[in-house]
Design brief:
heterodimer, A: mainly alpha, MetI-like fold, 13 helices, flat, B: mainly alpha, 74% helix
Chain lengths: 290, 277
């Protein structure tokens, strides 16, 4: 029923969005690529000569790059493990019949709406501070030595903070998926004598497989870009103990003003994110009936 | 066919789930308490804080007096509402045309729009920063509004698209048969059906823009700083600050918490791009 006129009208309606996104993607992307091959530091006034692969070479061979990659993997992996497994159990728990479902669900989901800088500072000061924090108080009152979270286990501390934010996300999505599970199927299995574990393993888990994959992929995209939590708690330290790739690029470009180096790091970050994105896009594309 | 569940099972479930809910919500609850304490009381042992001290509003007043809190609060409001409004302006026609006049490119366009969201922000930090510096957009509300509009545009378009898709085409045809003009069709048939979807899109986008903490921190300093950036001034605090940090935090998260409660379902749809419904 679409006529030629309505087609061209449709094209006109969509073009502002396409042009804006195209500009937003292409211009900075090309500039990042271009800068990454220049010897370009904002502190040095003058020429910005072509540098070949120099920036990439120095960025990759720097010891902090290796640390940053390791930290990124541990951070993403740690948060994914906690939130996916925890979210699975939380979702199953919240799906059961109970009193006050609405209010309990809201309490579990609330952390997702707390801005990253607030959650990081609240955890750092009110909970993880060895003297005045609640964890420290509890440890002291039980006669233990309080843990100095950001001194002794800095990366684990950040994993805890970030997991607190993302556990609700995983829970919410898995709960939504769980609610679309046919209850009669579960009842039939139960009547046939299937125990809780086999119902979980053979019915719930396969039903949730797709949602779990989506949770993992989407979280990975966001977790690769963790920044604010690190900035306000540890500034990437002690040493490079909590520097992830995003933070390392931030340091070289906006703190050391090394545009060339920062851009080379940016290109590497884009490539890494794309590896995940390809899988995610495929999953989403399958579901799209356009 | 709901299964009969004994009250005992229900009570047991409620207890376990309630414990989980309490644990997850506790940090928020805690700053809500601390915000109404004096600084001296706020660092006392947890039980003393709860039962052995009075309540006061002084931290809220201090935060406002010391750092002009409402300037940053209004920056957050302006930037998140502004970026949402601009985003809608661009996204509604785009989503509309893709949903109602699909072409063979629609699928690819949608997927490509989604791919722009996968670009890690740090990958384009340097050029955006330099462009902003040269255009004198650093630390301006206008610049930040534009950036937040652009980073959330794919999500807005996708959400609107999935909502528009659910409006059955038969209804439009029926209206046309009854002699409705295009104007009447859009005004009286499509719009009322699209409003719930648009409202949830707006809600989710405001939440995302309000909490965005990469561009807001890197592109602002003081003038245009929204709450995400403002709170970072407490990361190297002087003296006693728990009550003040709590007061500032409570005010920063309260509006979004309330909006979030209304948008749980839409959150799933928006953040999974329709992959989980």
């Amino acid at each position: 029923m679409a006529t030629k006129a309505s087609r061209s009208a449709a094209r006109l309606m969509i073009s502002p969005a396409v042009l804006l996104l195209l500009g937003w993607m292409l211009v900075p992307l090309c500039l990042t690529l271009y800068f990454s091959f220049l010897r370009y530091n904002l502190l040095q006034i003058g020429a910005t000569p072509f540098a070949g692969w120099e920036n990439y070479y120095w960025f990759v061979t720097d010891p902090s790059f290796k640390a940053a990659i390791q930290n990124t993997l541990v951070l993403v992996g740690g948060v994914l493990a906690i939130t996916t497994i925890g979210g699975l159990f939380a979702a199953i728990l919240l799906d059961r019949p109970m009193f006050g479902t609405g209010i309990i669900r809201i309490m579990v989901i609330a952390p997702f709406f707390v801005m990253p800088t607030v959650s990081a500072l609240v955890w750092k000061n009110m909970f993880m501070n060895p003297v005045n924090g609640i964890f420290g108080r509890i440890a002291t009152s039980l006669g233990f030595q309080p843990v100095d979270f950001f001194g002794q286990i800095p990366l684990a501390s950040i994993i805890i903070i970030v997991s607190w934010t993302w556990l609700p996300f995983a829970t919410l999505i898995l709960l939504t998926a769980l609610q679309s599970l046919d209850q009669e199927q579960l009842e039939a299995a139960e009547m046939d004598g299937a125990g809780w574990w086999s119902r979980f393993w053979f019915i719930m888990l396969p039903h949730l497989a797709r949602a779990i994959t989506v949770v993992i992929l989407i979280q990975t995209i966001f977790l690769l870009s963790i920044f604010a939590e690190i900035l306000v708690t540890t500034n990437g330290g002690p040493g490079t103990a909590t520097t992830n790739l995003t933070y390392l690029i931030y340091v070289s470009s906006l703190l050391q003003f090394d545009v060339g180096m920062g851009s080379a790091g940016g290109v590497i970050a884009i490539i890494l994110a794309n590896i995940v994105a390809i899988f995610l896009m495929r999953m989403i594309g399958k579901n799209l009936d356009a | 066919m709901a299964r009969a569940v004994s009250n005992r099972t229900k009570v047991a479930n409620t207890a376990i789930a309630g414990a989980l809910g309490f644990l997850m919500f506790f940090p928020i609850l805690w700053i809500l308490f601390l915000a109404f304490k004096t600084e001296e009381d706020a660092i006392r042992a947890p039980l003393e804080v709860l039962f052995g001290s009075g309540w006061t509003m002084e931290s809220f007043a201090t935060v406002q007096a010391r750092s002009d809190y409402f300037k940053h609060f209004s920056n957050s409001v302006i930037i998140s509402l502004g970026s949402t409004f601009l985003g809608l302006l661009v996204a509604i026609p785009a989503a509309w045309s893709m949903a109602f006049v699909p072409s063979k490119h629609t699928r690819n366009v949608l997927m490509w729009m989604l791919s722009t969201k996968m670009l890690p922000p740090v990958g384009v930090l340097v050029p955006i920063y330099l462009i902003f510096r040269d255009l004198e957009l650093l630390d301006t509300r206008f610049g930040l509004t534009i950036v937040l509009m652009l980073i959330n545009l794919p999500i807005i378009i996708w959400m609107l698209y999935t909502y528009f898709k659910e409006i059955p085409g038969e209804i439009l045809e029926a209206a046309r048969m009854d002699g409705a003009t295009l104007r009447a069709e859009i005004l009286y048939v499509l719009t009322p059906m699209a409003i719930p979807g648009m409202a949830s899109t707006v809600l989710l986008n405001i939440i995302l823009a309000w909490n965005e903490a990469f561009w807001t921190i890197n592109l602002t300093a003081s003038n245009a700083a929204p709450l995400t950036q403002f709170i970072t001034s407490y990361s190297s605090p002087e003296g006693l600050f728990y009550a003040k940090l709590s007061a500032a935090s409570v005010m920063a998260i309260a509006p979004i918490l309330i909006m979030g409660w209304f948008s749980q379902k839409q959150l799933v749809r928006g953040l999974t791009f329709g992959a989980v419904k």
